Amino acid sequence: xxxxxxxxxxxxxxxxxxxxxxxxxxxYKSANLIGTCDANRHTNLAIVxxxxxxGANPPLMGMLMRPHSVTRDTLSNxxxxxxxxxxAVPVSMFEKAHQTSARYTPQxxxxxxxxxxxxxxxxxxxxxxxxxxxRVALRVEDIQRxxxxxxxxxxxxxxxxxxxxxxxxxxxxxxxxxxxxxxxSGLDTYNKVIPIAKxxxxxxxxxxxxxxxxxxDQ
Length: 218
What we know:
- The protein is built from five helices and 14 strands.
- It is α+β, with helices and mostly antiparallel strands.
- It is globular, with a radius of gyration of 19 Å.
């Protein structure tokens, strides 16, 4: 039976229950490891599921960060250095990726403690995750504090993308199903994604038309 959770019910939920409940409502989200470093090139790695598309021209991606009420090395490094990387999490490494959410000290690199390998491309000064099948380098374009809950919106301009050519389709779409990536639901539930279909551009005088149907058994 469908149940109504109204404002009073949500406000009276226990803290952790409400956090899990509200976080689950937005559905599946990409699992990403954010690579940063400080001025001394001390590396940091943090799992974030709040990454989203902002625009293609210019190429921008957004990311919501928790309030800076306690030390947050990732956000501090981004503000200090102005660059960071977004690295997709392969299914085979979701446990190690989850471990990066533990509260390591600023002197402890999650790369070392969680089993990831930092790599550097050219003169870009933030570390990538060598094990990631899709790696994106970004430079800060804008950072805004949201008055609604004091979270910080980080918008970055894409400078580099590292991905297997075979996963890039003729129309430019990255077929992420080929990359075996993890996604997140709620705060801590990791999932595999099975694609259903790729659809043609929708028009009011045309029936929905699949361009490509995927094997539902994969």
